[in-house]
Amino acid sequence: MIYHIEYFERLSSTNEYLKQLAESGAAEGTVIIAKEQTAGKGRLGRSWVSPPGGAWFSILLKPPISVEQAGCVSVLIAVSLARALHERWGVPVGVKWPNDLYIRARKLGGILIELSSCASRIDWLIAGIGINVNNDLPQDVPATSLARELGREIALAELFEVTLEALARDYERFLTEGFEFVRREWHRFSVLPKRVGVLTDAERREAEVLGLAASGKLIVRMGGSTRELTAEEVTLCLP
Ligand code: BT5
């Protein structure tokens, strides 16, 4: 994959900006990076705190897969980032399904997938990635940054180089080989305990984690029946 990278001093949200480009036909591999976001987005209408010093970026992908398999891309990106950060800086990054990066119970980063589809095929998919690097952290949530973990700042340019290279390699491997290698690696990085609470709009229910489906969905046993959860459906809370 060939990247076309654009940098901005400030955007409301790199996902929102890239969405406009995607709708006017931008190529796969277009990357938007902002030094600062004024209205960074999390999932389900939540907000993402994005002051200067962090890595806030979005990548446009056009995977030839169905909407049903979109969860694969979310897990692929989380696993790829966790491995890349661990290999380069030695930090013990874990993946909390589907899209969170954690270091010892503190959130290091998150991924927001947005897509457009035609029939059941994905037309374009935007992977929005936020990683706390040298930035100030939100006070009201247990968060951490690479600088906090390492006790020194790291160059953002190197962070982008390391992560974008890993993502391109793993994405291409996924397109040729399928999801199995990601699924194997997910087991190495997952920080989900056996029992989790699953929070839906209506209620919080206990569930037992059984594994990861070939579609990237999380297989759980809940109230006697087995279900596959999609990222949009639930927020997991560790017990
Ligand atoms: C996510 O949502 O974790 C996805 C975050 C994706 C952000 C990137 S930045 C580039 C691109 N452009 C965007 O506009 N977004 C993407 P979610 O799982 O919903 O988590 C959101 C929750 O994380 C918030 O409700 C806070 O509790 C917490 N949070 C907000 N900012 C944070 C930060 N900087 N570090 C750690 N936790 C944070």
Kindly report the spatial arrangement of strands forming the biggest sheet.
1-2-3-7-6-5-4
**Beta strands, count:** 12
Shape: globular
N- to C-terminal distance: 40 Å
Stretches with pLDDT under 50, minimum 5 residues: none
List descriptors:
alpha+beta; 12 strands; 239 residues; binds biotinyl-5-AMP; 5-stranded antiparallel sheet; 7-stranded mixed sheet
In a nutshell, what does this entry contain?
This protein is an alpha+beta fold.
Topology:
Layout (H helix, E strand, L loop, with lengths): L3 E8 L2 H10 L6 E8 L17 E7 L8 H20 L4 E3 L3 E4 L2 E13 L2 E11 L14 H5 L5 H22 L2 H10 L5 E5 L4 E9 L5 E5 L2 E5 L5 E3 L2
Parallel strand pairs: 1-2
Antiparallel strand pairs: 2-3, 3-7, 4-5, 5-6, 6-7, 8-9, 8-12, 9-10, 10-11
Helix pairs in contact: 2-4, 2-5
The structure holds biotinyl-5-AMP.
Structural write-up:
With 239 residues, this protein is α+β, with helices and mostly antiparallel strands. It is built from five helices and twelve strands. The strands form two sheets. A seven-stranded mixed beta sheet has the order 1-2-3-7-6-5-4, sandwiched between helices. A five-stranded antiparallel beta sheet has the order 11-10-9-8-12, with no helix packed on it. The longest helix is centred in the C-terminal third of the chain and has 22 residues, at 156-177. It is globular. The structure holds biotinyl-5-AMP. Residues 13-15, 37, 40-44, 46, 48-50, 56-58, 99-100, 107, 110-112, 128-130, 132, 138, 141, 143 line the site of biotinyl-5-AMP. Biotinyl-5-AMP (BT5) binds next to helix 1, strand 3, strand 6 and strand 7.
